Amino acid sequence: MITIAIAEDHQSLIDGIKLFLEYEDDIKVVGEANDGERLLEIVRLKKPDVVLTDIRMPKMDGITATRHLKKEFPSCKVIAFSMFEQDEAIAQMEAAGASGYILKNSSLKTVLAAIHAVMKGETFFDSSIKKTDYRKKDTDDIPLSKRELEIVKLIGEGKTSQEIADLLFIGKTTVDTHRKNILKKLSLQGKSELLRYSMEKKYDF
C-alpha cells in the first residue's frame, strides 16, 4: 500500500485528487494540509511514502517544506504540483529534493503515473515541461577561482547574492559579476542551470 499526503491551499483540489485515488487499491491518502507548516506536521505524524505538494502555500512554501521533510525523512518521495513551469521553479524543487514535477492542469492519470514512477525510484516530469538539458562538468578541468568555487557552494545552499556578499564580506555587485563569469566559464544558461549545477558540485575545501 502506497501512503500519500497532499498539500494544497485549495481544498477543492485536494478533494478531487482524493476522490480519484479512492478507486486505486494500492494507494491510500493518509493526510492533507493547506499550508507548508501543517504538511510537516502531517509527515511527522503519518510518515507517508509520497507527498504531493503545491509550491506556493501560506505559512511555508512547498520548496521550504520539501527541504525540511527530505532532511528528516529522506526516503519520502516528493512530487511538486504547481501552476508554474518556469525552469527556476523546477530547479528549486529539484534542489530541495523533489522526485517529480507535474502541472495542475494535468490529468489525474498523470498524477497516478507520477506516484507510481517515484515509488520505483524514478523521476517524473509532466510531458508538457521542457526541461533544460545541460552537461555535467568536472570543475577540475574548468578554471574556476577559489572565490568562484566558494560562490558556487553558497548558491547550492540556496543563498541569495546579497547573503553571499554578506558572508564573504564583498559587495553584491561583485557577487553578481562572479556569477556571470561562472555562467560563462561553465557554459550554463541562466540561474536555473547554475542552481542545478551547484547542487551537484562536490567541494574539497
Automatic annotation (TrEMBL):
Sorted alphabetically, which Pfam families does this protein's record hold?
GerE, Response_reg
Where in the numbering of this chain does the HTH luxR-type domain appear? 137-202
Report domain Response regulatory positions. Answer: 3-119
| Keyword terms, alphabetized | DNA-binding, Phosphoprotein
Give the modified residues of type 4-aspartylphosphate: D54
InterPro entries assigned to the protein according to its UniProt record, in alphabetical order = CheY-like_superfamily, NreC/VraR/RcsB-like_REC, Sig_transdc_resp-reg_C-effctor, Sig_transdc_resp-reg_receiver, Tscrpt_reg_LuxR_C, WalR-like
What name is this protein filed under?
Answer: Response regulator transcription factor
Which source organism? Answer: Flavobacterium arundinis
